[in-house]
Amino acid sequence: MKVCVIGAGYVGLVTGTGFAETGNDVVCADLDAAKIAQLEAGETPIFEPGLLPMIERNAQAGRLRFTTDVEGALADAEIIFVAVGTPQRSDGAANLSAVDAVAETVAKASKRECVLVLKSTVPVGANARVRKIIASAGADKIHVVSNPEFLKEGDAVNDFMRPDRIVIGCEPDDDFARELMRRLYHPLSLSHDKIVWMEPASAELTKYVANTMLAMRISFMNEIAALCEQVGADVNDVRVGVGLDNRIGPKFLYAGPGYGGSCFPKDVQALIHVAREYGVPLELALATDNVNQRQKGVMLRKLKQCFEGDLRGKKIAIWGIAFKPRTDDVRESPALTLIDSLLAEGAQVSAHDPEARAHARARFGDSIEIPDRPYDAVSDADALVLVTEWREYQNPDFERIKAAMRTPVLLDARNIWSSYGLSGQGFTYRGIGVQG
Ligand SMILES: NC(=O)c1ccc[n+]([C@@H]2O[C@H](COP(=O)([O-])OP(=O)(O)OC[C@H]3O[C@@H](n4cnc5c(N)ncnc54)[C@H](O)[C@@H]3O)[C@@H](O)[C@H]2O)c1
């Protein structure tokens, strides 16, 4: 099938490459010329495990192309995916300007009957809004469906190729769109039919509800972590004890520095915003967001406790800048909030990340050190904060760390080292919801 994906970011690249992998003829179009040039040169502008070899394989086979010519790319496509960004506006709502712009371009440039698929995360009503844009441009052969994406960065290729479910919001009588979507997704649905059909508004809402539910679990456990610290309990034990209940399950129950990334923070906010517009207060979503905002300050509060409230002139080493391991994405990362606060407090920062150093350099310039090796960040540090639990940080040489530091203070925002007995080895150790 002829597929065009507009927006070659974390979602668009994986989507386009995934559909090329199942034999489709795919072109990924993006306005960002630097990104397209990188892709054409055989590089990937994002770090996503397993993606590069898949891009190379499909590009070499002639099934995957990249272009900045959006109109040319979509003109002849049977299925056009919109995978552009929908960032947060200052009032919390999703900014749909890129989606609107693409809808206008598609209405103008599409030359055949086709399906326009909203893959970007868009609030309830966006599908109807896009239909309106297309209708008012006089285009009458474009079928609009909503197909939210549930992949997670760091495991995106696997999530895309082996989805738990494929949600498609489609008008019940739109047989043309149904048939094309069913055929396109058939190879990802071979073991059993994974497509869940619904009205577009339900599909739009499903994405926000899923992300808000996951964010809510994290915020709840972060609140429980604060309680654990007060009552002498261990949030890791509580997590395991609770998560083994198969009505609850073990995932997204980890206390930490607050959730970040390009999705949870903005999607929770956007859901709150939409609900407010419809006069429905979402108290739990609001609390989820409030708890998370507070949690993003937890590491700074703990650091200040270790240094009698004064971080001026202290050198703080940070391990992990990306919002989670196995990605270079730093959007809304708790590490950024921490670094901003430390600089405002007059501390010096030396931060390492295996993959996100370029993004950190672009964000912080010369105001922090960003060494290439993790132990270099620790040299002469007054404290080391583990923010992102990359595997390479999980079992480090603690003797080497202690020897390199000025004062041996370890702040473990992921509770990775909590069972190592570090307090007994000459460190001041603090986790989240665990006893020192
Ligand atoms: N990143 C994730 O893990 C994830 C997961 C599920 C859903 N989503 C949703 O998918 C959407 C895309 O997210 P992302 O993380 O891939 O964003 P991204 O910022 O990585 O990529 C978006 C791309 O769209 C391009 N673009 C913007 N306007 C354009 C236009 N008019 N024409 C062509 N290209 C244009 C940008 O240059 C950019 O490369 C968002 O709505 C997001 O909420 C993201």
Mean pLDDT: 98
Structural class: alpha/beta
What is the CATH homologous superfamily assignment of the largest domain? NAD(P)-binding Rossmann-like Domain
Task: Tally the structural domains.
Answer: 3
CATH 2nd-level architecture of the largest domain:
3-Layer(aba) Sandwich
Largest beta-sheet details:
6 strands, parallel
Could you explain how this protein is built, in words?
The structure is a single chain. Strand 7 (166-169), helix 8 and strand 8 (195-198) form a beta-alpha-beta unit. Helix 5 (97-109) packs parallel to helix 6 (126-136) and helix 9 crosses helix 12. The model has no long low-confidence stretch (mean pLDDT 98). The N and C termini lie far apart (58 Å). With 436 residues, the protein is of the alpha/beta class. The chain has 17 helices and 13 strands. The strands form 3 sheets. It has a 6-stranded parallel beta sheet, sandwiched between helices. It has helices at residues 10-21, 33-40, 51-60, 70-75, 97-109, 126-136, 156-161, 175-185, 200-231, 235-243, 264-277, 283-295, 298-306, 334-344, 357-364, 374-378, 398-404, and strands at residues 2-6, 25-29, 64-67, 79-82, 114-118, 142-146, 166-169, 195-198, 315-319, 348-352, 383-386, 409-412, 428-430. It folds into 3 domains: 2-198, Rossmann fold; 207-294, N-(1-d-carboxylethyl)-l-norvaline Dehydrogenase, domain 2 (Orthogonal Bundle), CATH 1.10.1040; 296-430, NAD(P)-binding Rossmann-like Domain (Rossmann fold), CATH 3.40.50. Helices cover 42% and strands 13% of the residues. Bound molecules: nicotinamide-adenine-dinucleotide. Nicotinamide-adenine-dinucleotide binds at residues 6-12, 29-32, 35, 70, 83-86, 98, 101-102, 120-121, 149, 151, 153, 262-263.
